[in-house]
Amino acid sequence: MTMETSRFNARELCSRKLWELVTTPSEENIGERELQQAIEELATRRRYLEELQRIGKLREHKSGA
Fold it and tell me: How many domains does the chain contain in total?
């Protein structure tokens, strides 16, 4: 199934699935827009924040509250 045939909604996915999408090369997976949505959703949930920062995917969100 390609992501083009269905509407991508990051909120509908569990954190583990979002993490898999973020850490899998995007050309095999989802587009840049969907990738950014997945990262933003993980940051909103405050899941995998340290890992996102470590791999350089987290841009504007901060881990401290």
Answer: 1
Residue 64 placed within a domain = no
Give the span between the Cα atoms of 26 and 45, in whole angstroms: 22
pLDDT over 60 at 35, yes or no: yes
Q: Residue 50 — pLDDT band, cuts 50, 70, 90?
A: confident
Asked if residue 59 belongs to a domain, the reply is no
Q: Report pTM.
A: 0.67
| CA–CA dist 8, 42 (Å, integer) | 15
- Within-domain flag for 43: yes
Q: Nearest to residue 4, comparing CAs of 46, 45, 33, 38?
A: 33
